[in-house]
Design brief:
The complex is a heterotrimer of chains A (110), B (251) and C (152). By secondary structure, chain A is an all-beta fold. Chain A has a single domain, classed as Sandwich (Immunoglobulin-like), CATH 2.60.40.10. Chain A has no helices and 8 strands. In chain A, the strands form 2 sheets. In chain A, strands 2-8-7-4-5 form a 5-stranded mixed β-sheet, with no helix packed on it. A 3-stranded antiparallel β-sheet of chain A has the order 1-3-6, with no helix packed on it. In chain B, 45% of the residues lie in helices and 8% in strands. Chain B has a 3-stranded mixed β-sheet with strand order 6-5-7. A two-stranded antiparallel sheet of chain B has the order 1-2. A two-stranded antiparallel sheet of chain B has the order 3-4. In chain B, a hairpin with a 4-residue loop joins strand 5 and strand 6. The chains are: A mainly beta (110), B mainly alpha (251), C mainly beta (152). Chains in contact: A-B, A-C, B-C. At the A-C interface, strand 5 and strand 6 of A face strand 8 and strand 9 of C.
């Protein structure tokens, strides 16, 4: 029950036909501290947001995001990719504290 | 004149009470309703996932996991959250889900108490509440739980804070009305633990109730205090028949 | 950053609303022109081909659902290279930039953003031929009232 850095969830259809466009959904546990909040003692809470996120399909980039403090806490994204071959979709990210996270899922293409 | 006003107020209270119980979800906008219905996008499900992992983790001097004693939560914990708070023979008092989890953490696992609203406490609460999702709330208020129920009912009607308002004034007499861009609901406990947009995080029903105390500029009861437990017992009794919908989403 | 209003208790215990005039006060709008020029290059973006899905009335500025879609075949020869979201009254107006390409298959994204009050939101799409298209929309944010504890 450690307070480990944020976890992520990914959803990709497990199977798709070649050429089909499939949706990828992603949810990450992260406060996305915008640096404007104060704690109960009135001290500023340091800015810490996931500033970069990259989604890859068997190593090839699907999407690369540069994010700001205008992204909601516990960020959610949905986007698409064209199923080309059986393989893995991997998403990784990094926050201002240098903490990295990643999550992945397999897709079988027929 | 005074009597007429009193009579009108009494009638108002009576009609408010007679209104059928309705989940607070009905008072949320479309986006929040959709988010709550979406188990992938509802951020509270991340905490439920952490709770599932914590259930399996061996801890404390006993080096035991919850699963070592309780087996699969899907079976052993099904329905539990829907009938709490309840009299606890082990603790010899009425206790909430949060308190039962803690009792096991301390006594059965030999580990430190989980602080209120800490991530492990919320994760386990969310995970266990999920095992009763959709089940109707039903609590026993007779027998040894009786006196606590009456304390809760009394508190619900007691004016508090600088605003001198009781729970009933907002959640029964003003339910469905808008106060400062905020729709007041019946104040049902069905969603909790819930993800609250305002907090940008999930929280327990106790955090929600403390927010109501602060809202009327009243002193907030401590987490896990007898007053909060009594209020929860009364709230769940009042909500009987409504389905547990945790983890919910709220403004 | 959120404003607090107070309820006054009138005779008979009825709550009376006291909404200060400042309740609707917002951060001043940023001039988005320099940012837009940085993204679009020298020729101004043309309105069209981009669609923004935002509720016209958002209940809580901490988390507002946003859908973006760009008309594009997403082929090797003709695709969207990047999509950008700007919110003129956010303290940092550039909300997000996404780079994508033909592997995306469809130029469509959903995410949840923060909005510091009612404002204009602009989306830009830069195409593989260098052209920049845009869309904008107004969103009203009704932050939760302050019958409630401080957020932290």
């Amino acid at each position: 029950m450690s307070e480990a850095p944020g976890i992520g969830r990914i959803r990709v259809p497990p199977r798709a036909r070649r050429g089909e466009v499939v949706e990828i959904r992603l949810l990450i546990q992260h406060p996305m501290e915008n640096g404007f909040r104060r704690d109960t003692l009135g001290r500023a809470v340091a800015k810490n947001i996931i500033h970069r996120l990259v989604a890859r399909y068997d190593g090839r980039e699907i999407l690369r995001a540069e994010l700001g403090s205008g992204i909601a806490a516990n960020p959610y994204f949905a986007f698409f990719t064209r199923a080309t071959a059986s393989g893995r979709i991997e998403i990784d990210w990094e926050d201002d504290a240098g903490v990295r996270g990643s999550v992945g899922a397999a897709i079988e293409v027929t | 004149m005074k009597r007429a006003v009193a009579l009108a107020l009494a009638l108002l209270a009576a009609t408010a009470l007679a209104e059928a119980p309705r989940s607070g979800l009905a008072y949320q906008g479309e986006d929040i309703r959709r988010l709550q219905a979406d188990d992938f996008a509802n951020p509270a499900m991340l905490w439920a996932e952490r709770g599932a992992a914590a259930w399996q983790q061996r801890r404390g001097t006993a080096n035991k996991s919850c699963a070592d004693c309780h087996g699969a939560a899907e079976q052993s914990m099904r329905g539990v959250a829907a009938r709490l708070p309840a009299w606890d023979a082990r603790l010899q008092r009425v206790s909430t889900l949060d308190q039962r989890i803690n009792a096991c953490t301390v006594r059965e696992q030999g580990a430190a108490e989980l602080p209120p609203e800490s991530e492990p406490a919320l994760a386990l609460q969310t995970y266990l509440a999920l095992q009763s999702r959709g089940m109707p709330l039903r609590v026993a208020v007779d027998g040894p739980a009786g006196p606590v129920f009456y304390i809760g009912r009394e508190l619900y009607r007691t004016r508090i804070g600088q605003m001198n308002l009781a729970c009933t004034h907002c959640h029964e007499q003003k339910a469905g009305k808008t106060l400062l861009a905020e729709q007041i609901s019946q104040g049902q406990p069905t969603a909790w633990p819930a993800y609250r947009m305002d907090w940008q995080a999930p929280g327990s029903i106790e955090r929600r109730l403390r927010a109501c105390f602060l809202g009327v500029r009243a002193e907030m009861p401590a987490y896990r205090s007898e007053d909060l437990v009594a209020l929860q017992l009364y709230l769940v009794w009042r909500a009987q028949g409504l389905a547990l919908e945790a983890p919910g989403v709220r403004r | 950053m959120r404003r607090r209003h107070f309820l006054k208790v009138g005779a008979g215990g009825t709550a009376i609303l006291a909404v200060p005039a400042a309740a609707q006060q917002l951060l001043p709008a940023h001039d988005l022109a320099p940012l837009i020029m940085q993204i679009a290059g020298t020729s101004p973006p043309r309105p069209g081909r981009v669609r923004i899905g935002l509720p016209s009335l958002a209940e809580n500025g901490n988390s507002v659902p946003l859908d973006l879609a760009v008309d594009s075949p997403m082929s090797e020869a003709d695709h969207v290279r990047s999509i950008h979201v700007l919110a003129e009254r956010n303290p940092r107006p550039l909300v997000a930039s996404f780079q994508l390409g033909p592997l995306a298959g469809r130029a469509q994204l959903s995410l949840r953003i923060r909005l510091a009050g009612s404002q204009r939101v602009v989306a830009l799409a830069v195409m593989s031929d260098g052209a920049c298209w845009s869309a904008e929309t107004e969103v009203v944010v009704t932050s939760a009232a302050c019958l409630d504890e401080l957020s932290l």
